[in-house]
Amino acid sequence: MRQIGVIGASECPYHVYKIAEDIGRKIARKGWILICGGLGGVMEAASKGCSMEGGITVGILPGKEKKEANPYIKIPIPTGLSEGRNLIIINCSDLLIAIGGGYGTLSEIGFALKSGKPVIGINTWKNIPGIHYVEDPEDAISLAEKLLG
Question: What is the set of domains in the chain, with CATH numbers?
Fold first, then answer.
């Protein structure tokens, strides 16, 4: 079963939230597992969409408490590693989809590319060699299928 990482900021504007929620729904419909940081913003939106479609959501949490997870995380994994948990998210994912995001997302993109993991970007950091940029969730999932083979 494929594990798709969704990365993005813990706070985001409404239009980015809706994109992430749609990505989550599409991940669930493919029967893939959603991996994320388990908190708010893009992570919550993707988890919500996936959960609403009956999908499996895994939250790799920065702190030591399962209760930190957003309400849509089915499998919370507390790490106590703060931003260091980003490496776990990368290593658990077969492919990553970056939606919006700040410096934390940028670090995850860098780790993923360095690890040879495919990264698809929607409304995220621009002009980074190696990111496969797309315009919408449908294109992201279609490209993910192609990249995963």
Answer: 3-131 (3.40.50.450)
